[in-house]
Amino acid sequence: MPKTTTTKQIGRVPVVDLGTQDTHTLEESLRAERAAAAGEHRTLLVMLVRYDFAQHLEIEAALADPRVQEALGEVRIVRADERFHDKELTALGFPSKIAPTLCLLGPDLRPRDVIDGREWDDDTAENIAPVIGAFLRGTYKKRRQPWTPPPARRGEEL
């Protein structure tokens, strides 16, 4: 688990790993990353991971594959450890306990659409690319794991 927030390129996709010793709240970090993604004309994709699971490394290897790069298109990925940020994630309406989980955010920084690693079989580029591509295009309709958005906060709409 990274202690400080770091950004690296995997192929053409910027990947931000949120650090555990940063002074920002998760919400502040997501707000800053959404602004950075907008400035780059990219979609922000939040990936909840468990850095201490080997699956994290399998997913990272798949991200470099040309099929997954093509499926991702113009995104900026922000990875956060779902156990470390558990309370903040819950407060923002994120699902928890399944890693990896991929989230597209609404204007209130709450998830507006979510899938997790149960949507594909083995963590290979061949399996991941079609799911992520359809998810990001909004055409991933037949899901193994249905997801319902969290209720809007009082006075807000998703």
Q: What key phrases describe this protein's structure?
A:
158 residues; alpha/beta; Glutaredoxin; six-stranded mixed β-sheet; 5 helices; 6 strands; 32% helix
Structural class: alpha/beta
Strand content: 15-25%
Spans where pLDDT lies below 50 across 5 or more residues: none
Shape: globular
Figure out the total of helices. 5
pLDDT average, as an integer? Answer: 90
CATH architecture, by name, is 3-Layer(aba) Sandwich
**Order of adjacent strands in the largest pleated sheet:** 1-2-4-3-5-6
Top CATH class: Alpha Beta
Spatial extent as radius of gyration: 15 Å
Q: Quick one: CATH superfamily?
A: Glutaredoxin
CATH T-level topology: Glutaredoxin
Helix amount: 25-40%
Oligomer: single chain
Tell me the count of domains: 1
Element-by-element helix/strand order: EEHEHHEHEEH
Gap between N and C termini: 31 Å
How many beta-strand segments?
6
Q: What is this structure's SSE topology?
A:
Elements: E1 6-10, E2 13-17, H1 26-39, E3 43-49, H2 54-63, H3 66-72, E4 75-81, H4 86-91, E5 101-105, E6 111-116, H5 125-137
Parallel strand pairs: 2-4, 3-4
Antiparallel strand pairs: 1-2, 3-5, 5-6
